[in-house]
Amino acid sequence: MIQYLIRRLIVAIPTLLIVSVMVFGLQKLLPGDPAVALAGEDHSPEVIEYLRHKYQFDRPVPVQYASWLSAFVSGDFGTSVRTRLPIRAMVAETLPVTLELAVLSMLLALLIGIPAGVIAALRRGSALDHAVSVVGLAGLSIPSFWLGIMLILFFSVRLGWLPSGGFVGLFADPLGNLRSMIMPSLVLGTASAAIIMRHTRSSMLNVMRQDFIRTARAKGLAERIVVLRHGLRNGLIPIVTLTTLQLGQLLSGAVLTEQVFGIPGFGKMIVDGVFGRDYAVVQAVVTCAAAFVLAMSLVADLAYAALSPRIRQ
């Protein structure tokens, strides 16, 4: 297992380095001069030149990248040119918000996707199976921003049950936090629920055809025990790895959801950084998100290796 972990780390570190190079390089392709954007409307050549020198915009791009990478590795993410705040403090403030949103979305996806996939597999070819498949395809096809707007119109504007946006801290008001996160979690978890449902259905169909299932039924075990103890336990092995991968994607894919509901998380932070030409913020947020996705991929590999002896071999 240790050798397997080392091999995965050897692959993950260059991948993260390539991501950082792409993020840094693509930002340089954006039109416009960031120093002019920082100077505002009433700018002078002296002010622009001062800003270029202060934020190292006048240095070669490889030198800028090397300087930023060395500081990033040491834990110094830089300072936001828009808010003048340390980016590390901004990340520490917004990351728990997005993590909470991703975890709640994944819990909803698991609570919906696994039972629906099991039921569809046990009722293969029935009207219920087709209905679950249609709902799953709809969950994959509906745009998250449209679903969010529809939920706001129905539950907030029409019924008045839930707040239309904003965020309440978990420790400040647990009930208010739950009310503010229900709709965003549902929007973000819908596509994941559909994916988990389809994978659970496929995995259960494969497991329920195995010889050990026929043996369990031949021993006279109740169907409920056969399905839950023998079928579901083996069928969920690939779902464990899928869950960790989906959790990483939820963290990096919460941009639209956070914008629709006005949640001050990673997504809103990166959008504000792009529109404000706050390059340091964008680089730090995207690199941190990529690192989290790679970490979840590593956890998925380790979980699958722990559950499947063939992978370890």
CATH class of the largest domain: Mainly Alpha
Beta strands, count = 0
| Low-confidence parts | none
> What class, by secondary structure content?
mainly alpha
Counting structural domains, the number is: 2
Order of helices and strands: HHHHHHHHHHHHHHH
- The total of helices stands at 15
Question: Would you give an account of this structure?
Answer:
- The structure is a single chain.
- The chain is mostly helical.
- It has two domains: about 30-75, no CATH class; about 85-310, MetI-like (MetI-like fold, Orthogonal Bundle).
- The chain is about 80% helix and about 0% strand.
- The chain has helices at about 1-30, 35-40, 45-55, 60-75, 85-120, 125-140, 145-160, 175-205, 210-220, 225-235, 235-250, 255-260, 265-275, 280-305, 310.
- Helix 5 packs antiparallel against helix 11 (about 235-250).
- The longest helix is centred in the middle third of the chain and has 36 residues, at about 85-120.
- The radius of gyration is 24 Å and the shape is globular.
- The chain starts with a helix and ends with a helix.
- The mean pLDDT is about 80.
